Amino acid sequence: MSDHTALDQDTLEMLKDVMEDGFNDLIMTYLTDSEVRVAALAEAIKSQDSEAVRREAHSLKGSSGNIGATGLAGLCLVVEHKGRDGDLCGLEENLSDIRAAFAIISDSLKALLN
Amino acid sequence: MTEQSNLKILIADDTDTDRLILQTIVSKEGHQVICARDGVEAVEQFEKERPDIVLLDALMPNLDGFGAARQIKELAGEELIPIIFLTSLTETESLVKCLDAGGDDFLQKPYNRVILQAKIKSFNRMREMHRTMLEQRDQIQIHNNHLIQEQTVAKQVFDNVAHSGCLDAANVRHYLSPMAVFNGDVLVAALRPSGSMMVLLGDFTGHGLPAAIGAMPLASTFYGMVQKGFALSDILREINQKLKSILPVGVFCCATFLEVDFHERTVTAWNGGLPDCLIYRPKTGTVDHIKSKHLPLGVLSNIQMKVDCLHFELDPGDKVYMWSDGIHEARDGAGEMFGEERLLNTFHNSNNKPSLFDDVMAAVQGFIGDNEADDDLSLVEIEMVAPEEVSSKSMPSYSTEGPGLMEWRLQFEILPSTIRYFDPLPLLLNIVTEVPGLRSHSGSLYTILAELYSNALEHGVLGLSSELKASPEGFAEYYAQREERLANLQNASINFAISHDTRENGGNLTIKVKDSGKGFEYDNKLLDLSSKKGYCGRGIPLIRTMCESLKYLGNGNEIEVVYSWRSDR
């Protein structure tokens, strides 16, 4: 599980450097946005909408990757592929992995805020 | 760097964090950022803000990146608006889809700041290059339109100068490519006061304006001098002199100059650098060549220039063909030239049909086929006909208004050095036609003066026998003797005494011509008889019909004619 919660320090350093004062905003935006996406993903899985599953997982993968949460992005990629292939087996399990990872990452990121 | 500052960049991404990161990176580079949250918004913002570069997320709600890219490219029209797809897609198929939709490049997530900057910079360069290209293309288009407009006007001016002549005469057919003047081809034709026709076909080196400009002085000199009755050699020298002084080195005019005499049924020809002209004789099916024996006009100074001509006798129905090298050098699809051999074959296969002109045109155009690349054909056909059949709508007309030279006499004597090189006829004709009312008689007056002068010179001073001219061999011999005797001429003179008296509604012009020759036995009483003996070849019967009176004086080395005219109004 620990590899899914890792945060790439180089990426975070780069973001701090680029965003300067905007770094806090970026993290907060990521957290808010991701909560919405995780909820939307859960809804899509519940309603067995494979296209929505693919789209939500894809978005979460992209923003997580950009923030340095590469492990979480990897979890999302698995779900994105399942959505694309219309393979809806075991998605509940994937979702709980994502939720768990996001919770830890969320704490780690909040710790970085000034 | 100034080249990439102040760009307007549209960022369309539905993920807030991604948009935030991109927006921050891009604005830190000094660009203005416009944001959109989906494809529909992206298209709306594009229309409103007209950004320079667009960054598009591939997967977005409402309208995805592919659809937005298509609409934006369509709205951009000719302008190059680089679209960079923001994507975490990695499958080849998806990336191809981005390009198919009009994307110019990708930016992979997670974003790399350095690569993004490099891409913006490079696409901005491409965008500016494209804009420069469009501007230059438009400029070329404007210049080209301008040039064509100028050429059209120039062609109108040229046509007014060049085509005031007698190209419309019934015995002349010609073809010039529509914009031939800008290929450097020029064709002018006019009738001399004597009734003979002068035709000049010229081909200037080069193309376009430099080639066309020389045609103007050529045409105006030609028409001015032909109308005043100057001889072919004088006109050639004058044109040569003009061209030599105005054209840059390396620009000159290959030309053929013909004088067709419908009374004598002869052609006098000078060819400087154009392909052989052909004389086609339908009765015998034979073809004579008028070869180039001279350098083109505008090359040599008048001192070095030779104006000796070739002389040919023609029967009615015989035709002379002139062309520029456009016909010989016309190419087919494979690049092969039409050439002289094919041209001569057209003549040999013609079987005396009257349609030779059309046959030649058809042969050349059939050979070229659809290959219209070199369209600068010039072709002229002149048929030997009876003098009265040569008619042109554009005969010169003169007003006879106003007072002028009325009662006067002049004495004019020319001596050997002048006789050898100078044609006094235009000078005398110009004085005589200063008399109001006589200008419209210039054709008759020229004929009279010319006959009297050539009799005085050739039979009186040079002692040539007109009987020589009866056969083609003698004809050549006659001209050879004329050249030789002129060159060795000494102690000779020809004297003109011309006077004019007015009568009611007209006047009498008395012309006396006296030569230093030994004269001949004449009988003025026999002049009224149409006997050819003795006066044959001297054009006397013709002059007799034109004048009030004609009589020989002294030893027969002096003649006096009175030309009587009345105003018809």
Would you write up a description of this structure?
The complex is a heterodimer of chains A (114) and B (569). Chain A is mainly alpha-helical and 114 residues long. In chain A, 80% of the residues lie in helices and 0% in strands. Chain A has five helices and no strands. In chain A, helix 2 (23-46) packs antiparallel against helix 5 and helix 4 (70-85) runs antiparallel to helix 5 (91-112). The radius of gyration of chain A is 14 Å and the shape is elongated. The two termini of chain A are 28 Å apart. Chain B is built from 16 helices and 20 strands. A five-stranded parallel beta sheet of chain B has the order 2-1-3-4-5, sandwiched between helices. The longest helix of chain B is centred in the N-terminal third of the chain and has 50 residues, at 113-162. The model of chain B is unreliable at 396-401 and 530-535 (pLDDT under 50). At the A-B interface, helix 1, helix 2 and helix 3 of A face helix 1 of B.
Question: Could you give a quick summary of the protein structure above?
Answer:
The complex is a heterodimer of chains A (114) and B (569). Chain A is mainly α and 114 residues long. Chain A has helices at residues 9-19, 23-46, 50-67, 70-85, 91-112.
Largest sheet geometry of chain B: 5 strands, parallel
Overall mean pLDDT of chain B stands at: 85
Structural class by secondary-structure content of chain B: alpha+beta
Overall structural class of chain A, as computed from helix and strand content, comes to mainly alpha
Uncertain segments of chain B are: 396-401, 530-535
Distance between the termini of chain B: 88 Å
Uncertain spans of chain A, ≥5 residues at pLDDT below 50?
Answer: none
The number of strands of chain B is 20
Report the principal-axis shape of chain B: elongated
Oligomer designation: heterodimer
β-strand percent of chain A reads under 5%
Helix share bin of chain B: 25-40%
Largest sheet strand order of chain B: 2-1-3-4-5
Overall mean pLDDT of chain A stands at 88
N-to-C order of helices and strands of chain A = HHHHH
| Biggest pleated-sheet summary of chain A | none
Q: List how many beta strands of chain A DSSP finds.
A: 0
Number of helices of chain A: 5
